[in-house]
């Protein structure tokens, strides 16, 4: 009995350790998307560049992320999750150094595309890896460590930006710092194994069993058996397979969740928070930046709350709570911008944005990435996740590019009402289409689609 408890504790600790190392990929995702806001202020002081060129430097990461997630899905299924994450670590490392030493704006754009490629791949390969290595009862929390790492990455980029803001060519230092997490990811992934599920899909059952025994204190033989069965279900792993009628609903869930994750406006806050705070009356840059840091902090803290709840309450309940909170806080923000005046406005904006980000952080933030790592059949999991991920980055780019024009044409109030309305549509979508995956094994989830569509 006592032996069992010790064994269970050890395997739990080990699996947390593995998940934390892999989640450094998420940290790089957050850091490299966040760092540009501060870096840009210095870049445009050093190089005289048009606002178009600035826009290209900012969005080059998003372009890279689309390319990366589009091009790599089949590779994660062919060469394994670990090898692909290792390759992203190398790209992050090279890309960070190259961006830091960029001789011209064009070179910087190209190197930022390179980093974007690594972000695009890591954004789904890391949750995929963690999901496939985790025991069912804590998979939600473990996969969401990736989202926690993203939020920590974003927050630390704000601090690093502030720290290097006064340095000569400080933006070069800001990019260079990215080599530290890249190295941790590289060394860490060199010692970690691939996932038992991918190993079984390549016929390496013995190796898979060893890993299962390490990370799941009991039941490893049954799990292996279930994985072997699900590997046999379908075998071509290509477009015909991914468009098969029983998989289509899962594709809709993945793309739909990514649509709502982005079209409910999170990155208008993450990327433009200082602008929104200035519109609300925090005139000095430093006041706007401090308010922005509070957004970053609440994002981290509420992701921790989500991690504690996700395997107990389940994914759907958290989605309902989070989306309702997002709809309410955005509506409040819209009302504040519509008719209110005075000192009150500033604080009302701060409160509603904090409530909005908190609601996102307990729900759509972690859960969109978690659910896409759970709902696809093993044979096409990497490929299908990469499709959902491409759509995430494409939607992200659309919202980021249209936000400022939207503010101009619709005005502040209607812009935020539109996002509030999207949250309500998101609620309906989750209610109707998203399955509850809490506590189920990946193989049970796969069988669920098969049964529903009577294959
Ligand atoms: C989203 C990002 C967003 C981040 C904020 C992630 O889940 O995919 O677009 O910037 O959360 O925490």
Number of strands: 0
Q: Kindly state the mean pLDDT as a whole number?
A: 90
Name the poorly predicted regions: none
N-to-C span = 43 Å
Give the ligands present: beta-D-glucopyranose
Order of helices and strands: HHHHHHHHHHHHHHHHHHHH
Nearest-angstrom radius of gyration? 22 Å
Question: Which structural class matches the secondary elements?
Answer: mainly alpha
Strand content: under 5%
Account of the protein in words:
With 455 residues, this protein is mainly alpha-helical. It is built from 20 helices and no strands. The two termini are 43 Å apart. Bound molecules: beta-D-glucopyranose. Beta-D-glucopyranose binds at residues 147, 150-151, 154, 261, 266-267, 270, 299, 365, 369, 392, 396.
